[in-house]
Amino acid sequence: MKLRSALLGAAACFAFAPAAMAERGADGEVKIIYYQAVSGLNAYISSGTKDIEAGSLVLEPLAGFDEKGDLFPRLAAEIPTLDNGGISADLTTITWKLKPGLVWSDGTPVTSADVKFTWEYCTHPEGGCAQSAKYEGIKSIDTPDDLTVVITFNGPKPYPYQPFTGATSPILQKAQFEPCLGAAAAGCSEQNSKPIGTGPFVVTDFKVNDVVTYAANPNYRDPAKPAFAKVTLKGGGDALAAASAVMETGEFDYAWNTQINPEQQAAMADAGKGVFVNGFGTLVERIEVNLTDPSPSLPEGERSTIKHPHPFLSDVNVRKALSMAIDRQALVDVGYGNAGRPTCNVVPAPEAYASDNTECLKQDIEGAKALLEAAGWTDSDGDGIRDKDGRKLSILYQTTVNPVRQDFQALIKGWWNEIGVEVELKSIDPGVFFGGDAGSPDTFQKFYADVEMFANNFDGTDPEPYMAQYLCSKIPGPDNQWQGENINRFCDPAYDAKQQELSRTADPATRAQMVKDLNDMITKNGHVSIPLVDRGRLSAHSNSLAGVVLNTWDTELWNIQDWSRAK
Amino acid sequence: MVAACVLGFLIVFVLVGPLIWRIDPNFIEPDTAKMFKLRNKPPSLAHPMGTDQLGRDMLARMMFGGRVSLAVGLVAMFVAIFIGTAVGVMAGFFRRLDGILMRLTDLFLALPLLPLLLVLMMLFRDPVARTLGPRFGTFLLIVLAIGVTSWMSASRVVRGEVLALKEREYVLAARSIGLPNRRIILRHILPNVLSPVLVAATLGIAGAIITESVLSFLGLGFPPDFPTWGRLLYDGIAEIRSYPERVIWPGLAISLTVLSVNYIGDGLRDALDPRIRGR
Amino acid sequence: MFNYFIRRLLAAVPTLLLISFVIFLVVDLAPGSPMSEIPLTVPPDVRQKMIEAMGADKPMLVRYVIWLLQFFVVETGWAIQNLTGWGVIDAITPAMQKVMRLLLNSETYEFTGQRIISWQSKVPVFQIIGERLPQTLTVVGTAYLIGVLIALPIGIYSAYRQYSWFDQGGTFFSMVGYSVPTFFTGNVLILIFAIRLGWFPTIYDTNLSVTDWASFKAFVRQMALPVTVLALFNAAEISRYTRSSVLENLGQDYVRTARAKGMGEGKVVLAHVLRNSLIPVVTIVALGVPTIFGGAIVTEQIFKINGIGAALIGAINVSDLPTVQTVTFIFAVLIVLFNLIADILYGILDPRIRYD
Question: Per the CB < 8 Å rule, is C313 touching B251?
Answer without folding.
Answer: no
